[in-house]
Amino acid sequence: xxxxxxxxxxxxxxxxxxxxxxxxxxxxxxxxxxxxxxxxxxxxxxxxxxxxxxxxxxxxxxxxxxxxxxxxxxxxxxxxxxxxxxxxxxxxxxxxxxxxxxxxxxxxxxxxxxxx
Length: 116
Description:
Blueprint (H helix, E strand, L loop, with lengths): L2 H14 L4 H14 L12 H9 L2 H5 L1 H30 L6 H16 L1
C-alpha cells in the first residue's frame, strides 16, 4: 500500500470520527513528508500499521487527545480486520458441492471395481 494513499484514508476516517484538530494536523504533517519525491517508494502493509506508527510519534505520545483519536481508529481497524477474517473463514468452511462429473466418475470406478 502506498503510504500517502493510506494516510489520506486515515485522515478521512479520523475526520469522520470527529478527531481533534491536532490529530488532523499530525496526519497532514506526515502526509507532506510522504508526498516528497524521496518518500515515493515508501510503502506500508496496512492502515493498521500506519495508525500504530502515528500513535508512536512524539505528538501523539505527548497529547492524550491525539493518542486517543489514533487508538480509537486502531480499534476500529482491528475489529474490521477480525470481522473480515471471520467471514473468510466461514466461507472456506462451507462444503463445496460436488459436480455431476464427480458422481459420474465415482459410478464408473464402482463399475470397474465390481467388474474385476
